Amino acid sequence: MMGKFNRLWLILTLLLSLCACHLNEKTNMNHDYTLHFGMQGIQDFAKYSKTPVDQQAGIMSFYSLDFPVKTLGKVTVVNGEDTMVLDNVFAVMGTQMFDDLKYGIQILDIDAGLNKEEFVTPEQAYQAYVNIMHQLNEKGWKNYVYPFEPRIAKEDNLKYFANSSNIIDPTHILSFEEWQWCFKKKYSLFYRLYRNGILTDLTISKKPSRETADHQIQEQYMLRCSFQTIRYDERNTISNSDKMTPAELEQAFKKNRDEDKKLRAGEEEKFKAKGYRIDTEYQNPDVWQYVK
Question: Nearest-CA neighbor of 229 among 54, 3, 77, 37?
Fold first, then answer.
């Protein structure tokens, strides 16, 4: 009788273990998403999201994913053959333009915590930043300067940051001391990066710290990544671009570039007068292939 009871207990234990494994797989699957731009992005949201599409009067449509605090999401953003992985995601919003329906998702806005825990030690927050910067550099994301903006030299990286919050050298991973100095100066770090026809504005923001019962300081940081296609970004600067012929669009694009050069030259003279060095070797990537 005791042997039969032991066998039944063993079977029950195995069944419970299998159910737990299946539940864990299902949970991971439900919170580990891969998102694309374009029409594949529309299919991604249709597959993952239970939230109705928010359509704004023939202007744009918003697709969304939201994650509960206890089970934050892991999102992989696909950019051609490259991917960018973001952990601790609270919410994702994808945007489709009404006048560009066939191009599907052109913007992905992702809000996340820098760390999994709400509050962490200064060292833990810094290490999470380092991990993100390593990933960006390994994937080949480069600093992007709009064609009308001054090309500040990397040697003036922190000097420029102190006045703008912009970090212009993503290849330089801040030391722990520099990281602390930056957040004493500003509430956020801002990077504008480019890779394979995609722009991303990456912002790390510091929230109010707290002191534990044993007088240890704990910090909280938020991460926001706004990805958008360079096609959308460039065409958005050209009035009625959706109504232009290919020849008209190219002419308007070149006109914008000529005006940008004049604006850049003027801005660079202003910054030189303030003691900044200019990176005259910086060349904006050739984006016309994505715009046309």
Answer: 37
**If we measure between CA atoms, which residue out of 77, 86, 120 comes closest to residue 223?**
86
Query: What is the value of pTM for the model shown?
Result: 0.85
Pair of tokens at residue 179: 């990281």
Q: How far is CA 73 from CA 157, 158, 225, in A?
A: 33, 33, 14
Using only C-alpha atoms, what is the Rg of the chain?
Answer: 24
Q: For residue 73, what are the β-bridge partners?
A: 89
- 94 vs 105: CA distance, rounded Å: 6
Residue with tokens 């938020």: 222
SS3 244: coil
Which residue reads 């006048």 in tokens? 99
Q: Measured between alpha carbons, how far is 169 from 167 in angstroms, rounded to an integer?
A: 6
Burial letters for 272-291: b for 16+ Cβ neighbours within 10 Å, e otherwise? eeeebebbeebeeeebeebb
Mean pLDDT check: name the lowest of 27-36, 90-99, 149-158, 249-258.
Answer: 27-36
Answer for the pair 260, 148: CB distance below 8 angstroms, yes or no: yes
Q: Please tell me the predicted confidence (pLDDT) of residue 119.
A: 94
Identity at 27, one-letter amino acid code: T
Q: CA-CA distance, 76 to 34, in Å (whole number)?
A: 5
